[in-house]
């Protein structure tokens, strides 16, 4: 356990009384929403009910648990830092970016909810996107040098959060303890979409040197250099030739491979290359009753687990409307894959109709699972331990 009870940590967190006071049958506040969510819902988000009640004692137990176990969100955009500096945007995305960032608020909520660390993810292809037909689509190509320049700008913006004293940069698991001791949540850098590589495998090592520890191979850019995405018709029948070089190059650099947004063929191509655990940070397993493009197959989920990786439980409002529904999703993944292959992937700050959109509600997730009979060991694995295990494995596979 990396987090022990410590006055410096607790002094930086909201008091228990402020979390418990005023009753515990709460409605979780609705979120900022995904880029594809209608703009008016971004500005005036609806409220999502929790769907269950915690007693004061149950909430207290959840807070005690979070004070002694590291909670890590494996995929998030806290405060939406990625919108800074994006140019040549479609008009809807220009309005979205114009809403600005809110890192101070997001980090305050992390402290309040005892979220020890999160992957602060840049978005590689944001300038190319537009909301069309109920989803995000790429609508133009990168200008020469744009992908790399935008990546570097996002890294500078993320680093500025640490320079400002909002977060503590986490480049290895042991630094989670440094973050705890500092009283500032940990920020693990990620990139959603590897388009910034732009044909240069050496940029994988550069990304590692920049502090990036997890990269989602593809995002919404269709026909990019890496391979096919899950939300557009296939162009390459899986990974490209370059994409098949990218996977081992990133693993040799010590970076976790995230298969979220990959088409089924792209994901299996990556898994076939082996080399260590791979993950899908924010998705769910499709079923006959609910089969949507952003969900993955049972076979792919099991393949990810077989690699030693995990699937991040995603609180998007697709087929669920309450926080209780999100707990159902966590349990469905745990039943299919085992608790050692499930993590928390909130997509915080840029999710679609989120049923969990505020880090201060993390104790309700923990308390809700406790209420359902989860033991501390299993809960610790899902809340952060599985991410830490894969983080360690990725660094152990690094070829200096």
Envelope shape: globular
Percent of residues in helical segments? 25-40%
Unreliably modeled segments:
1-35
Strand runs, count:
13
Structural category: alpha/beta
Alpha carbon gap, first and last residue: 29 Å
- Main sheet record: 9 strands, parallel
> What is the annotated CATH architecture?
Alpha-Beta Barrel
* Count of folded domains: 1
Strand content: 5-15%
Average pLDDT rating? 90
- The CATH superfamily is Metal-dependent hydrolases
Count of individual helical segments: 15
Commentary on this structure:
- This protein is α/β, with parallel strands linked by helices and 400 residues long.
- It has one domain: TIM Barrel, CATH 3.20.20.140.
- It has 15 helices and 13 strands.
- The strands form 3 sheets. Strands 3, 4, 7, 8, 9, 10, 11, 12 and 13 form a 9-stranded parallel sheet that branches. A two-stranded antiparallel ribbon has the order 1-2. Strands 5-6 form a two-stranded antiparallel ribbon.
- The longest helix has 21 residues.
